[in-house]
């Protein structure tokens, strides 16, 4: 069993490296096409000038047929990560950090009802590697781990199994259901998802990680979970249900409320974060950190 898992992991990592190499070559060719269309080679970086002739020989053979005709048809290792999405419902396991406070236990309980097909387990003294191993053995698709600081929930880890990715979030302005007056009963329908403001490639990657935590809902579902990109690249989460009153939709918020801030994505499961490749890491202490909008599209960030 371990040999098979190691072999599959090596194949997955090798495919990612080949994909990254091909993507770099495609970007160089696209840059060369744009330079030739502009009628000069002065725009080429010095490192590309030495490769320009070799790349130019292959440009005539790079057509727009086959899979190149539609970028949505291109296969990548990210497709392999969620290849069963929509075919099989996700199976989630939720746990906490060690020695959780009563507030963190309550927050984990609310998250357990937020995600359909989610099971909450007590952490106890289990190591991270033991949790991941048990999840893999039981065909769990995602492992969620919430943490706290002085009784305030402030961390969430989402690890997709068996090969990753693993996303790390900091939580802000957490308001739980029992602190919200008049929230009503927690709806049990499969929720419709609303993703707003996810413009950049990083934001699309984040949206892919979040949306695959939920099964495919029925078209007439009246439960809605919204993820909205707000200022400073925070993701605002809200949960609603709606009904029609006198021909007008009426929203009822059910909670919990929270803002998520992504600070790291690792291309591997939770037990391999120290050795797996880092796909993204936030750099909040750079001089340009206040100006950058990583989640917005290029035209929005430039505005």
UniProtKB/TrEMBL annotation:
<dbReference type="GO" id="GO:0042134">
    <property type="term" value="F:rRNA primary transcript binding"/>
</dbReference>
<dbReference type="GO" id="GO:0006364">
    <property type="term" value="P:rRNA processing"/>
</dbReference>
<dbReference type="GO" id="GO:0032040">
    <property type="term" value="C:small-subunit processome"/>
</dbReference>
<protein>
    <submittedName>
        <fullName>Uncharacterized protein</fullName>
    </submittedName>
</protein>
<dbReference type="GO" id="GO:0034457">
    <property type="term" value="C:Mpp10 complex"/>
</dbReference>
<dbReference type="GO" id="GO:0042274">
    <property type="term" value="P:ribosomal small subunit biogenesis"/>
</dbReference>
<dbReference type="GO" id="GO:0030515">
    <property type="term" value="F:snoRNA binding"/>
</dbReference>
<dbReference type="InterPro" id="IPR007109">
    <property type="entry name" value="Brix"/>
</dbReference>
<dbReference type="Pfam" id="PF04427">
    <property type="entry name" value="Brix"/>
</dbReference>
<dbReference type="InterPro" id="IPR044281">
    <property type="entry name" value="IMP4/RPF1"/>
</dbReference>
<dbReference type="GO" id="GO:0005654">
    <property type="term" value="C:nucleoplasm"/>
</dbReference>
